[in-house]
Structure formats: C-alpha cells, structure tokens
Amino acid sequence: MSLAAIQEVPKESLILLSGPPGAGKSTFCHQVVLNGLAMEKPVVYVTTEHGPAEVVGLLREKGLGELPPNALSFVDAFGETVGATTPERPDTVGANCEDLNSISMAIAKLQERIGRRDILLSFDSLTSPYLFNKEEVFRFMRLCLAKFASEGNSVLALMDEGCGKTEDLGAMMSVADGILRMEIKESSRTLNVVKHPKVRPTRIEVPIESKEVVFKAGIDYDRAVLAQFFKSFNKGKTSLRMETGDLVNLFWSNLAHWSGMLWDPKGFPKMIYEMNKYEGSSGREIIKVAPWSMRLRYKMLTSLQDIGLLPKTISTVKDMKKLWKLPLFGNLDKERSGILEYLEDISKPDEHYFRIYENSDCVGFENMGAPIASHIPPMLAGNLNMVEKDRRDWNAIETKCIGLGDPYCEFKFIPDKIGELKNSLEKDSPVVERIHERLMEHLMGFLLNEKPLVERPKLGSDVHLHVVMHGMGFPHLAGERYTMAQRMGGARSGKELGERLLEAGLSEDEAIKRVIDFMNYCKVGKVTLGETIRIRENCESIRTKLYTHIKEPSCYFTTGFLNGIFSATKNQHVREVKCIVAEDPYCEWEII
Amino acid sequence: MDDYVPTGILGADKILGEKGIPRGHSILIAGGPGSGKTTFAIQFLYKGAMEYNEPGIYISLDEDPEDVKKNMSKFGWDIGKLVQEKKLAFINVSPVRVASSEKAGLIQLGMKEFKLIKLLEAIREGVDEVQAKRVVIDPITMFTLQYPDDVERIYAMRDLIADFRRNGCTNLLISELRGTGLEREHQFEEYLAQGVILLRTVMKDDRLTRMFQVEKMRGLEVDTQPRPYNITNSGIEVYPTLTVFK
Q1: Taking the model in full, what pTM does it have?
Q2: Whole-number Å distance between alpha carbons of A406 and A40
Q3: Chain B nearest C-alpha distance from A521 (Å)
C-alpha cells in the first residue's frame, strides 16, 4: 500500500486525520492539496493556525506553481481569530474560529463562487474551533462538513490529539467516513489507516521529507537493472525495451522538460542542474554495483592515475586532452545528445571550453533569446568531478547556444562556483512561455499538418531513453517539488494541447487519438487506448526504474500530460494504477 | 404579472420557495437593534427598482431618510439616482423629528397631522408619484404607539393592511423585536401580518450569531428553519442551506 493512495480523498467522504502536534499532519494535508490540484480539483483550504500567505509559501516549497483562478481558495479563520481584519479577496473569505457559523458561511460562499461539486476541502485544523466551541463542533462536522462532502466533494479535516477530552475525539471520529491517525516515535512516522472508504486498514511508514534536495547515492541502484542498462547502453547488445528499442524522439524529452520548467521556472532548472551534476559524478557509486568489466575499466583508470600515466587533476589543457575521450567521461555519442569537441585553443588551466553540435536540448529552439542547454553542462561537470582524484567542485555554464542564435553550443567549465550561473539557471517566465509556445507550434504542425518534428543532420531525431526528460529519472531522489513540477507542468501542456486541438475543429475522440499516435510516433512506449490507457515499455518509468527501489506508480509527467489531454477534451481525469516502477508489466491509467 | 415578489436578497428567495413574497401581502420584518432590518428593507426596494422594475417607497417614521440614504450608500447602492428617476421615494412622517420646513424631494407631514388617515394619504401620494409596487414602513412600532388602546391599535393596523391590499403593493412593516434570544413574546402585529420574517441575533459569550427565519408566510410553502445570515459590504446575504451553530 502506498502513501499516494491515501493522499487522494475519495469523493463524498469526510476523512479525519488526527495525531499529536508535530506528527506531520499538515505536511500530509499539503500533499493531499497538491495532489488534488494536480487532479484539477478546486481546493478550498480552511486555515486556522496560519494566514493564507503562509500556507501558500509552504505549498510553494513543495512545488506549487502558478494556478488558474478558483483553483485554490482560502477560508481565513486565522486573521480574524487573532484580531486582524482580513480584506475580502476573490480567493479568500474571512471567518472566525470562535464562530462556526462564519466558517460555514465562508465555505458556502466559496462553494458558490467555484460552482463545482468536486471540491477538495482541507480543514487545517479543527483544533481551534473545538477549543472555542467544544461539543458544538460535532454538529458542525455533521451538518457542515459531512453535508458538504455528501454533495459530491471530498473533505480532509485535521485534529490534534491530546487537547480536549478523549471521548470528544471519539465523537469526532464517529462522524467521519474515514479515520487516519499519525504517530511519531523517535525519528519515524507512521500513518495508521484505521478506517477508509477505499483502502483496507493498514500502517504506512511516512518518510520524513527534507527541505533540501537530497540524493541518496548508490543504495537505490538495482544491480540487475543496471547490468542490463550497461549492456544495452555501452555495447548496444541488448535493449532495455525489447519491443520499442532504446531510442525516444527528443521532442518528447524536451516537451517533458519544458513542461516542468513551465510550472516551476525558478526551482526546476536548479534541480535539473544539481541532479545532472550528481548523476555525472555518480560513477564512483554506480561502479560498486556495475558489471565486472566496468569495474575493471574503472580500476585501470584509477591505477593509471596512481602511477602517473593519467593526470590526477584536470588542470592544464594537456590534462584535459588526455582525459576527455575516456569512456567513463561523456557518453554523449551513445546518448545521441550531441557531438562533443574540446576547444583546446581557447581553454586554459582550470578553465576549459567544450563545443557541442546538434545538442538535443537546444535543436528546435533557435533564436529564443536565452541559453537552452540544461543537461549536458552539469552532466559533464559531474564527469570531471568523478574523474579527478581530488574531486573538485566542477561547474559549467553555457556561453554560446543555438537558443541564442549560435550554430552550436559552447560551455565553460571551472573547478569552482560560477558567479553568473545562478542567474543563468533561473528562467524568466516569458522566456519559458516563448519556448513552450515554440514546442506547441511544432506539435500542432505535426498533429494537424503532418509537419515533421525536429530532425538533426547527423544524429537524427532520437535520443537514448537514458536522457529522456534531460537525464531526469530520479523523482524519488529529487523530492516533491520535482514530481510536482513534472506532473503539473505535464497537465498544463496536455490541457493546452487538448484545447488547441478542439479549437482547430477536431472532435474529442480524434484529438485524443492523434495525441496517442504522436506518443507512439515518439516511441514513448507502446501506447494503447481502451477502457484504460496502457503504455508498455514507457520510457519514463524505465528511466526511473534504473535509479530506484521504491515500488509505486511514478510516471509523473506522463500522468500529468494524459490528465491534461483528457481534462481538456472529455472533462475526465486519469489515475496511474499500474506502473513498471511498481513491478507491473506495464503502466496503466484508469480514466475517471 | 407574477403572483410573487422576489425580495432580491441573496438566499432569502430560496427560503421563500424560490418565489418571493406573495404579491399584495404585508410582511412584518422583526429584528433587534443592529440586526439589519432597515438594510433588508432598503435592499428590497433597491433590488425591486433595479432588477424587477418595481418602484418603491420608503416611509420613515423614525429616522431621517437622509441618514438612511447615507447609511445605505456603503453597500454601493446608488439610491440618489433612483430617487431622481422616480423609481424610489423617501417619505418622512416621523412624528418626533419632523422639521417644519419642507425639504426638496421629500413629502413631509407635521406631527399634528400624524394620524392613520394622514399616513394613508401620504402613502397613496407616494405610491401615485412613483407608481410604487413596494412599500416599506420603518418602523411600524412608531405608528402603533400612537394608539395606546389595544383594540384601537388592532383596528388601525387592520385598516392599514387592508388599504395596502387594495392598492396592490407588497409591504414590509419593520418592527422592533422585543426580547432578544430564542425565547420571546409574540407581538400582536405578527398575527395581523400575512407573513413574518425574523432577523434574530443571539449573543454567546462575546460573539454574535445572526439567524434569518421565516416564521410565517401565508400562501407559500416555506422553510421555517432558522438559517444563518450576514451583513456584508454588498448587503444582506442569507445562507438558505446552512444550519445555525450555537
């Protein structure tokens, strides 16, 4: 049983989540809210302990991006309760914890404004209203919250354990359709599903989320999967995907990447940079579980460095010339992500330049007025870090780019922090919108007029699935913010595409059919549409599976994208019920 | 012509069976101080004139109509414009505060003339002037006070209501609610009026709960449960499906 299944509140139910303070109730609640938003449910957030701005801040940390109007509304039962007046805004209605009527009226008001019957109401928390109103809260739960739920909506209400009488908590539980209890013991958190309309009673360990992007090295690699990967990747002897092959159209990769950027233009590029850098330098961890031939090769490299035949540090141009073509460094040709060239003329000690032709990140984004490349620079910087004995902190910045109007891309590598790097990573929304628009134009041209997608003179249109989504495939290592960006960005792209196809005069079914054909054309996997959507050999999950042992549905971008398409065309949603990452034979989405 | 008059008040019409007040009826609006009686009445007239093309008159027996107009401007209602367009008239028949001088746009009666017959005349004049379909008397208490004798009082009220009935106007009679809280005495006006709407306020600790309740509405199936209401910056809002919490 995964946490994800619990994070969706079934419709027409009131779920009570109780636990001692600090057990992670609010964190869980935020996850439920983000999950609801990702499913395009309008969310009404009743906040009693913080102001709405603070809640939005916390949600942003977990990856909340820009939302359409009415997607997230607040009942601010905090400001007035502590004596501040809350100005009425379209998305916020004030209320007072002391007055249950004011809360119930505020909810009714927002319900009318939103005008839908699939609202997710999160009540965070009932503790203050209970302290002010005691037993009357039971009536409130029944006649306001349970009634609201019975109209088709879903409600998650939080309550602190340990304040008030035990029998009162029992009374509250008796009103709820589902009961979740969080426990905290030392450093572990457990979620007890005591009663739930959809899930059997169970206990789930809840990982404690860190705010920092954390990479768990080595431990997450699966030796067998990795062996197969090296076999296919290095030798081309076998395939990770027997039917579809290992190549994926780079358009799909770029669509996924820029969808994530669309959702989180400030945070996403930094995550991509850090993760690719980590991946580039992860060879030392991977080598421990790699096949013997790889380990031997690595051993030889380090031995040659030890006896001085190969440089231990890459300082001079001469050092770099000896090292850059080693098989452990730069696999761009195998990835088909570009043709790499070391620029020895302009490089100098501790400042090296590389040029890349036909960069898969950037082809198709000519003259966007911004550097585009996102996975190769940090990847190679990570490679340099790995090859060096003393592992300096190499960083890279793009100095020339197809996106800036140059015929190729060039990068500068320095074994230190690069001042202007942060600025170049944080993308402005207009730039991202422009890039997104370019992608949409290409895609619409392809879908409506059979115009070809991007094609490169030497490397063609495909990249290895290893670099799909710009080398991303660590959702479990990257955390909520990354998965949120992929899912919500995917939903935005999918929705926009669906809307454009309908505007172009296609019927709903025709629009969906063309998108599915496009996915098959891109070799996303073997996509079939029936009662459900099924993707065999889905590149996203195969990519993810290389790097994780976590067994739960993990196709964030694919899910978001399909969700967007179905929501725009048929007003339906999809939920991933099977996933290759979760050891299922294929990925599958039910249509709801 | 429709048989019912929508109040134009958010949520209240839903409680009144999605219809409104039966046309020609006199409805008593009873509420404590600050419960929004006058707001309710002005909103009834304003919405009538704006949305249902039913002009109205407001007969003040207590407050200066100018004060009422000023107070109501905070809800964003352009009352002055409606007065100019002759869709709304304010008549001051306050027996206490009336000044001898005549104010422009107002029909004034002196204290001495203040008798049922004069009130009726004033109403008729006003109704004729704007072709009124809606009439508010605020507060009716000031009128009944003129008749210390119970029997006389009842007859005077009867005559007033009968007269309204003849001219086809739908009326709100505003009354002070004696006794706050849930227990209270019934007032004789409640028996005479064809409908009674209560705007009650209950204090618990130091906070106020407002309840809207249609106690009686002859000729209409109504929801008689108390429902919460609020005075917002756009007027009164009643929440017809919500329960009142203590």
Answers
A1: 0.78
A2: 40
A3: 53
